[in-house]
Structures are given as C-alpha cells and as structure tokens.
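Might I ask for a little of your time on a matter of protein folding? Here, with my thanks, is the record as I have it:
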Amino acid sequence: MRWKFARFCAAGLAAILLAHTILAANAGELNGRVIALADGDTLTLLGADKKEVRVRLEGIDAPETGQAWGMRAKQTLSGLVLSKTVRIATSGRDDYGRTLGRVYVGGIDVNAEMVRTGSAWAYRQYLTDSSLLKVEQEARNAKRGLWSMSPDETMPPWDWRHGTAVSTSVVAPQAHGQCAPKRYCREMSSCAEARFYLNACGVRSLDGDHDGTPCENLCR
C-alpha cells in the first residue's frame, strides 16, 4: 500500500513539475548574459544553454549608427546591458527573425530607460505599451539625449531608413551637385551640410571620434 501511495505522490509531483515547465515555456522568458550589441536597440544574448539569441528591443527605435546620436545611443545601451545578466520578456519575432522582447536588468526596464534618456523613440508603428509615448514626451521636454539637438537633426530612424521626411536644410547641398568633393569640416557651412556629407555621401572623415556627430564645432 505504501509503495502505491509513494508512486501516486511521485506521479503527482511529476505532473506539477511538468505543468510549471509548460507555463514557464509559454511565458516567453529568456535569461542570459549580453555579449554583443548591433546598435542602440539590438543585442545578442548568450543563454544558459550556450546558444546565442539576437534580440530586438520591443516598442522602441534607436537612431541608426550612421545617424545623428546613433553611436551615443549604442553607448547608452552598452552601459545598461553589455556583459550583464538580463531577463527578457519575449513576444515573438520580427521580419528579420530576431526575438522581440522587453529587457530587464534587475529592476530597470531597459526599453523604457532608452526612451527616458533620449536614446530612442517610442516605435509608434509597433507600439504595444502606450506609456512609452509619455516617457518620450518627458525626454523631449527636458531636452535629454537626442532631443538636445536642433529639430532638423532629430529625424525618426524609420524615416531615415527609408529616406523620407528629410529636412530641406539637410538636402540643400545636393541641389548644387551630387556630393561635391568636400572632405573636411572647414569646408562645411553648417551642421546640416556636415550631416548630409556624413550620412548621404559617406564622408567618414567628418566624424573623427565615431560618435555619429560630424564636425563638433558646428554640431554642438
């Protein structure tokens, strides 16, 4: 009789453990250490199983690395997560096969922190948490991060990627010919022109410290 009872208890315990395992799997959670960053909103996670997972931070969009404030956004994310153990609440995959998720380091919501510091926009097209819009507005009002730049320099990355909504002051140099042979900051008449030659013409010599901002004497 005892052995039957023991078998019954063991079976019950196994069922409970299995249920917990299934619930954990359905919860969509990853844990691991961040080993690399692609930019200000994409990281690579090394899980406990030693498998690498590429993760796109859900609900935010950081400036591209070739864009104004792009490298600074990446540096901010690096300070928050690189070489640290993180928890990620996942919500599926994007069109590029990357895992989408909300990233946490201890009690810090990294996605929200990137927006709060002016290192990313709330990504309106894929937004599931409307509170990020309020966080972004607070960063704008306080002129934090990218919001400290002039309005013609703060192009949303989704527009920058598709070449739309470009300020007329940025494209003005193009009216005088496709990317004239200018290579030095002393040849630039404005910050807008310097950004055009850096981003549209690929003149990397204008960005000596590789922070995404050309000619600091003009773009400060």
